[in-house]
Amino acid sequence: MNKPSRMVLFATGLASEFIDSVVAQGETFAGPSLKRALALEPEAVYIITDAAWGRELVDQAPVWNPRRRTRIHCIRWLCEQYQDVLRQIAADSGGEFRLISQADLEQLLD
pLDDT > 70: what percent of the chain? Predict the structure, then answer.
């Protein structure tokens, strides 16, 4: 197996330090971030959230991804409520939806 280069290890360390320094606060709405990501026309975008959003994101995602070039994969994290919005966004873009429940995490620890 190939070992990662020193530069990759250094960059990974910097990224880890930055992520550890971020403090979550307030509410989360992925609209502006999703719009910016889709403007780059990547192959895929992943939304990982426990937030509850309204139907407006379901209406806007196809506008921002008109040719469905980008698959939007949605992962619902530790919250089984409000799955319908994420399921619809994933389905409309050809992406997949996945729920990660507390039970899923507990199975990993067994």
Answer: 90
